[in-house]
Amino acid sequence: MQDGNGLDHLAGERAMAQFDLQAMKVYLAGGQREYEISTKMAQLVANDPVFSKEDRVRLARKDLYKNSLRKAGHAWKTILEKGLSEVEGLKLRHFVDEPTYTDLHWGMFIPAIKGQGTEEQQHKWLPLAYKMAIIGCYAQTELGHGSNVQGLETTATFDPTTDEFIMHSPTVTSTKWWPGGLGKASTHALVYARLITDKKDHGIHAFIAPIRSLEDHTPLPNVTVGDIGVKFGNGGYNTMDNGFLRFDHVRIPRENMLMRLATVTKDGKYVRSNKPRQLGYGAMVFVRQGIVIDASIYLSRAVTIAVRYSAVRRQFGNKDEPGELQVIQYRTQQSRLFPLLATAYAYRAVGFWMKSLYADVMKRLNDNDFSTLPEVHACTAGLKSITTSVTADGIEECRKLCGGHGFLCASGLPELYAAYVPACTYEGDNTILLLQVARFLLKTLSQVSKVRPVGTAAYLGNIKQLSTQNCKVSQGHDWLNTSVLLEAFEARSARQAAAVALRLAKGSGSEAEFQENTPELVESARAHCQLILVSKFIEQLQTGTPEGIRKQLEVLCYTYAFSQLIDNAGDFLATGYVTGNQIALAKEELKHMFDKIRPNAVALVDAFDHTDDYLGSALGRYDGDVYTHLYKGAFKESLNDTVVVDGYEEYLKPVLTQNLWAPHSKL
Ligand SMILES: CCCCCCC/C=C/C(=O)SCCNC(=O)CCNC(=O)[C@H](O)C(C)(C)COP(=O)(O)OP(=O)(O)OC[C@H]1O[C@@H](n2cnc3c(N)ncnc32)[C@H](O)[C@@H]1OP(=O)(O)O
Ligand SMILES: Cc1cc2nc3c(=O)[nH]c(=O)nc-3n(C[C@H](O)[C@H](O)[C@H](O)COP(=O)(O)OP(=O)(O)OC[C@H]3O[C@@H](n4cnc5c(N)ncnc54)[C@H](O)[C@@H]3O)c2cc1C
């Protein structure tokens, strides 16, 4: 997807590549068909001036939001006019690359109706939603509670005399707060509220509440709704209208309660289905599984910018070589950059696996098999947490790897960070989600003698062996064995989980003791997730990777695993499974991996296939013509619209000629 100006400053780098670039592009896209769709949609967006991102960071909020409405509308028009398929439409919106209300409409509102609505309700609402005759958002979080879903305060009280629910926000803290698309765009909200029938509170259920007129978009009577305000960073997530919403005894028909998991009859009887109530959290599971691939995409963007720029940028030199050195030659640059490159590849592989895990659980749920739900919840929650935290930190690291120029918006990195960093909070605060994983591990361990753990927790079935045998690595190349690596990650995770489980088992079982141990619980959850990431990367590699790219993927896989081992050396050492010497051997092996990545680095980021338009970065341009474009870019700065700055007469001139202010000053 080359779209430079023809002069390739990185041609020398590209000539060094030792793998089949095209095969890698197809692999990273998820297959030939996906690759073709991505290429087509990326070009479609890049060539359409309405989708331009050029001035985004300079726009004031109102203009920014209006522009994002224009783009979302234009995207929908393009989808309809060109008759794009659902997958193509999704890709098109992806390349428009701007958080907007349609993310929540397609990403949460529709999936929640599919998951929690009866067939009849799906027939009623989905056709309207699919043609965007209504726009929906996902209104769960309130001012007072986000993580603690059971603590939500909005009420939906059934009135059998009119066959309606009365939606009400009884306190300030019950105000819905944060839902994307709610602030200005949505006509309907999927509201999570406490269901009350005959004065009895049945806990949190989902309701479809109309909030704006379909005639003129004004809020419906007794609905107070608006945008919550400007968020972190320029551009970034400010294209989204995160909103607030209050109901003052607003009536909605009884049929607007999503009734797949529980029903309220006309006479006010509450009937639960035999399905687990956690299915009500299904839309969150759906979004969390997709977040892993998204993390790979965001990280790969930052890494593409940092790798290309590091190959262009030269500083200092040595007496052995003429000229200055490319900064990518420095070991420290490699040791910060190449693990992130490997991580982006790892998350792509694991993201593909997550999709199959999700497809599997959906199939099972349709057959009323709920057995894998806890494991899928733990996986989606845990990997969402780890991958978003690492990606957000990784984008910031890439900014620093680009030195001063990384701090300019022209690098594309500040905006990328601002748009991405809320992923650590939305769809579940990352610590809260790790605590969910920890609870799953504790439960699995407590039942291990009776129930053999399966799937990603299967290794806990070997807890005795993993707790007693230590690492056998005696030379560096002993590490170059995926079974050896896997066992190290399994042993570390099993031992960390067992240690905290034992400590809790020895105690009284009080909540206070649990709280006291939460730092260790979070560490053990992180260890479990890191094991899943390493093991699934290995597994994906070993199943049908084309010959022309396998070797490079192996190098990236070892790079990823070794860097995880080294970054978490404290944990590995504390469990007693590895020695300091074995860690030192892994460090040496990691450097060998860097040597193997180095000649391929630029081609490995080319394989992500990001267009210049999508990257939006002078530093990450395909042609490497960084300096010309940084310089040209400065002339687009609005401060340079006039040679003498606006404000000179009022504020600069008096400073320069102080006597205008204080003619008798002695200074
Ligand atoms: C493409 C779309 C773009 C998206 C843009 C992003 C926009 C952002 C949207 C949002 O942020 S939407 C709001 C997201 N909110 C959250 O994620 C809230 C986080 N909180 C929770 O998920 C839960 O409340 C909790 C903290 C996990 C649970 O707390 P609690 O202990 O009170 O749980 P209970 O409700 O009592 O349930 C406990 C029981 O249920 C299991 N469980 C919890 N979550 C799930 C789940 N999602 N799926 C399946 N099972 C779940 C949990 O493990 C417990 O099991 P047991 O221990 O009882 O076996
Ligand atoms: C950009 C953005 C978009 C969003 N979009 C939506 C949306 O579309 N719809 C929607 O419903 N919501 C949305 N949200 C809300 C989001 O889901 C919540 O903010 C998120 O789930 C975190 O909840 P909280 O804000 O209550 O954090 P809190 O739970 O208040 O967290 C604050 C701190 O307390 C810690 N903490 C809390 N409880 C515990 C505990 N038990 N143990 C240890 N530590 C704890 C957390 O780790 C965190 O450090 C969005 C949020 C953002 C930022």
UniProtKB/TrEMBL annotation:
Name the keywords, alphabetized.
Answer: FAD, Fatty acid metabolism, Flavoprotein, Lipid metabolism, Oxidoreductase, Peroxisome
All copies of the Acyl-coenzyme A oxidase N-terminal domain together span 21-135
Q: In which family does this protein belong, per the annotation?
A: Belongs to the acyl-CoA oxidase family.
Q: What is this protein called?
A: Acyl-coenzyme A oxidase
Please list the cofactors this protein needs.
FAD
* PANTHER family according to UniProt: ELECTRON TRANSPORT OXIDOREDUCTASE, PEROXISOMAL ACYL-COENZYME A OXIDASE 1
Keyword Cytoplasm part of the UniProt annotation: no
Which residues are named in the active-site annotation? E427 (proton acceptor)
Q: Where does the record say this protein resides?
A: Peroxisome
Q: Does the keyword Flavoprotein apply?
A: yes
Question: What does the entry list as the binding residues for FAD?
Answer: T141, G180
Q: Which GO terms describe its cellular component?
A: peroxisome
Which stretches make up the Acyl-CoA oxidase C-alpha1 domain? 281-442
Molecular-function GO term, any one: fatty acid binding
Q: Where is the Acyl-CoA oxidase C-terminal domain?
A: 482-656
Q: Which gene encodes it?
A: LOC112291573
